[in-house]
Backbone:
């Protein structure tokens, strides 16, 4: 094998590097630069001031909002993980025929054939005060007053998150499970392990990369979401991205940029934390 | 852009023809004739809130003048954003008076020469002096006449009184109040503070557009005696603090069901019965009624919160495009559109011309507060009100004469927005 010239290697990585530079590095650098700019109601003034960060980090509203967003992310993560793992487990180990596995997997994706905004909004008439859920419960005599917390509440927000994002958990976990060598499970049974022991000692450790990938999807999406929070909480709750959207709609781009930088750092820290627990590359 | 290339090319040829025609006829006669011929090639790009971006208006304009108006509807915040950050993306800005206070200093718009506006003298005096009648009291907030004029063509600050340079031609305006579900409130509603009644806990809403929401909040706080304002349209920091503090407390007590940001959200909240008393816009009330749900635009004793929309022209417009813009606006005020807007429950800026396009019964119902003799139709030909009904709030003079405050931009705008965000996040 002849040694490839250094220049050939550089040449080969140029397209990818250029794309990253143009569509990732440059925009993020711009956001960082703008986050130090000053602004008035109508204009953005190039400058180097820390006021945007000061106003952001010293405000209790910011901390409340970050806390709220992390809470949404955490609850959603736990629920999607439980449901996603169970679904994937059923598909991978209980459904024996490969055809049925594929059919059922496709069934899971059917809701994704419509836009996720539509899937979100359809919950509103269902959960409303005079909606289907309340009507049914009242007809059945289970409640006498409509349940107010069903819509325009944090409950509604989390419900929709779980509905929208569970599949992002199912797919990578299912993928990890399908790669598990079935003879390992037999060996586990032969060695006298119960079903639960097999699950916790064999399957779970081997699914870690799938769980990590799914978790990264779910957590990053929820941390950056603003539409769901606005629609499902009826404007009563806030999220970090919603704060940014508010600032941008009022032309306060530098304030939004500062918030974006802080959010980016927080999310990166979470992702790095996950990567330290699980080595994703092992499974890719 | 195809329109620019095509348009300019043809215009050049016509201009060439114009020079020859001008030589033969004398330039003063030649010029307008050429532009009139050229109207069919002229496209004016207009953006604005959903309120007045009406396809019917664009179609009628095309039929009457040959001008093509391309309309884009945006929400209020996006309008300000578009106007300031993308000044070349539009020719006509259809914006509210409080927005122009924010937009004008960035020099993206140019003022009108009142001498070129055919109906300038007939525009309702509210927009020139702030007074409906010579003895009226000027309402608080960003009253249109305070941002309606500039001293010079290129001035960035507003003039104190009437001048030749008009920043914006008013087109459509109204007096806003609370909308209620008369079938569900079960009591008399007469004041802004009634929205705080514990009986309505979890069944109220206000709008989440800071510059408008804060005014509704101020009307509520003032009427409940929580805050006394020097000028609701220009609050001090202390007044903002007190208002927001009260809003947060009310929110935590669970008085509000939701906050709405778009027209359709307010309609859905009301129709579904999630909310029975809330801030509302008049066509939203009409939309709820058209679904067979009872809804009233309740006049309140403290008065109305008013708003006004107008058309402004982009700074980059010149030559035939600028003339076309004047022609469009003169056409706009010539009556047909005014009648169209009045029939939707808004008001037009020039009443005399609009009257000619409305029947006596329509004029009586919408403008004079008289009971309708026959069914009142919407511009689209649907029955809006049955014979015998009287408009909520009564006549034009009764409604526009009882304006307590205009939508406003405050000096402490940046502070107010921060506080408003803390209210939404709380």
Residues:
């Amino acid at each position: 094998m002849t040694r490839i010239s250094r220049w050939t290697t550089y040449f080969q990585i140029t397209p990818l590097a250029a794309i990253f530079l143009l569509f990732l590095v440059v925009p993020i650098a711009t956001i960082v630069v703008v986050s130090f700019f000053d602004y008035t109601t109508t204009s953005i003034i190039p400058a180097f001031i820390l006021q945007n960060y000061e106003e952001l980090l010293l405000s209790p509203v910011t901390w409340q909002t970050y806390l709220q967003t992390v809470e949404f992310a955490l609850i959603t993560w736990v629920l999607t993980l439980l449901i996603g793992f169970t679904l994937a487990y059923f598909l991978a180990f209980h459904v024996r025929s490969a055809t049925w596995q594929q059919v059922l997997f496709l069934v899971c994706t059917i809701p994704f054939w419509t836009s996720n905004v539509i899937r979100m909004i359809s919950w509103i008439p269902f959960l409303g005060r005079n909606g289907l859920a309340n009507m049914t419960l009242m007809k059945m005599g289970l409640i006498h007053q409509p349940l107010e917390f069903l819509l325009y509440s944090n409950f509604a927000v989390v419900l929709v998150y779980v509905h929208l994002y569970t599949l992002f958990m199912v797919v990578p976990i299912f993928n990890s499970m399908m790669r598990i060598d079935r003879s390992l499970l037999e060996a586990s049974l032969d060695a006298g392990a119960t079903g639960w022991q097999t699950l916790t000692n064999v399957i779970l450790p081997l699914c870690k990369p799938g769980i990590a990938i799914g978790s990264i999807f779910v957590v990053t999406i929820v941390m950056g979401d603003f539409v769901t929070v606005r629609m499902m909480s009826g404007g009563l709750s806030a999220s970090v991205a919603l704060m940014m959207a508010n600032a941008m709609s009022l032309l306060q781009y530098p304030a939004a940029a500062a918030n974006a930088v802080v959010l980016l750092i927080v999310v990166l820290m979470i992702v790095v934390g996950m990567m330290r627990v699980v080595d994703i590359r092992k499974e890719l | 852009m195809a329109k620019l290339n095509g348009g300019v090319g043809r215009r050049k040829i016509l201009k060439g023809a114009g020079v020859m025609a001008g030589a033969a006829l004398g330039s003063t006669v030649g010029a307008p004739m050429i532009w009139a011929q050229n109207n069919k090639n002229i496209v004016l790009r207009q953006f604005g809130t959903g309120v007045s971006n009406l396809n019917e208006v664009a179609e009628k304009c095309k039929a009457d003048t040959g001008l093509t108006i391309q309309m884009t509807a945006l929400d209020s915040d996006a309008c300000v954003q578009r106007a300031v950050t993308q000044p070349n993306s539009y020719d006509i800005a259809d914006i509210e008076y409080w927005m122009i206070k924010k937009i004008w200093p960035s020099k993206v718009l140019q003022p009108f020469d009142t001498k070129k506006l055919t109906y300038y003298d007939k525009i309702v005096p509210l927009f020139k002096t702030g007074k409906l009648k010579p003895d009226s009291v000027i309402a608080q907030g960003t009253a249109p006449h305070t941002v309606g004029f500039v001293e010079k063509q290129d001035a960035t600050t507003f003039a104190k009184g009437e001048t030749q340079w008009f920043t914006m031609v008013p087109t459509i305006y109204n007096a806003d109040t609370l909308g209620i579900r008369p079938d569900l409130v079960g009591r008399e509603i007469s004041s802004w503070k009634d929205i705080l009644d514990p009986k309505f806990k979890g069944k109220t809403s206000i709008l989440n557009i800071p510059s408008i929401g804060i005014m509704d909040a101020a009307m509520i706080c003032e009427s409940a005696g929580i805050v006394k304002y020097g000028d609701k349209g220009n609050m001090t920091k202390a007044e903002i603090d007190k208002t927001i503090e009260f809003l947060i407390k009310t929110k935590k007590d669970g008085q509000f069901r939701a906050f709405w940001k778009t027209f359709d959200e307010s309609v859905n909240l009301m129709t579904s019965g999630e909310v029975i008393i809330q801030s509302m816009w008049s066509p939203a009330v009409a939309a709820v009624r058209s679904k067979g749900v009872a809804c009233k635009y309740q006049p309140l004793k403290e008065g109305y919160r008013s708003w006004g929309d107008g058309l402004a022209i982009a700074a980059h417009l010149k030559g035939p495009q600028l003339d076309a813009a004047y022609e469009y606006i003169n056409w706009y005020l010539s009556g047909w559109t005014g009648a169209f807007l009045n029939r939707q429950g808004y008001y037009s800026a020039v009443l005399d011309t609009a009257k000619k396009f409305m029947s006596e019964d329509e004029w009586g119902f919408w403008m004079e507060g008289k009971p309708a003799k026959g069914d009142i139709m919407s511009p689209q030909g649907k029955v809006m009100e049955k014979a015998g009904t009287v408009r909520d709030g009564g006549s034009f003079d009764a409604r526009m004469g009882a304006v307590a405050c205009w939508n406003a931009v405050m000096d402490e705008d940046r502070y107010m927005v921060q506080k408003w965000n803390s209210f939404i996040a709380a």
User: Anything to note?
Assistant: The beta strands of chain A are 38-39, 44-45.
